[in-house]
Amino acid sequence: GSLPSRNFKELQNKPIHTTIWIPLVIASLSISGFPLLSGFAAKVLTTKNLESWQFILMNIAAVCTAISFAKFIFLPYTTAEEQKTKSGFWISVIFLITGLFVANIVYLPAYEITNITKALLTIAAGWLGYHFIFKKLSISLPRVFEEFEHLVGVMSLTLILLFWMAFP
Predict the structure, then answer these.
(1) Is the C or the N end of the chain the one with fewer CB within 10 Å?
(2) What is the DSSP string of 28-85?
(3) How far is CA 57 from the centre of its chain?
């Protein structure tokens, strides 16, 4: 499956099919750190050993992540029209979604009431920010940065920087 457009203003006015919407929602919830998905355990593990100033920055980043992925969660969807899906679509979706749940079993101590409450409040703050502030904004970035040569160049520079930091 694929989205009918890359423009979110168009997507907000044209419902997408449920077969595309469900994987988008589950992936967006996982990246936002929703409990029971692997993003939750990753965020809890990341924030576990931070200093106070780092903790504040990571919480701001978590709210911004929830804002960013709320646009996928709140897209209108429909089941009215039948959409053709490729033969391996549902197998791959089930495999990936199962991975999001199974990867979460590794770190069960993350499921304390404080961590769950913090995650849900962070996501709620992001969704409220999206609905009341960012939904009406339209930020368009130039597509020139998505060209293959630019992507390979940035990834190469990032790799050099990481090796330089690891092996001084």
Answers:
(1) C
(2) HHHHHT-TTSHHHHHHHHHHHT--HHHHHHHHHHHHHHHHHHHHHHT--EE-SS----
(3) 18
Residue with tokens 């692997």: 38
Neighbours of 80 (CB within 10 A): 8
Q: Using alpha carbons only, how large is the chain's radius of gyration in Å? A: 18
Identify which of 84, 80, 71, 77 has the alpha carbon closest to the alpha carbon of residue 138: 71
DSSP assignment of 125-164: HHHHHIIIIISS------GGGGSHHHHHHHHHHHHHHHHH
3-state secondary structure of 12: helix
**In the chain, where the domains are located:** 8-140
Residue 124 CB: number of other CB atoms within 10 A?
Answer: 12
Non-local CB neighbours of 15 within 8 Å, separated by 6+ positions: 75, 76, 77, 78
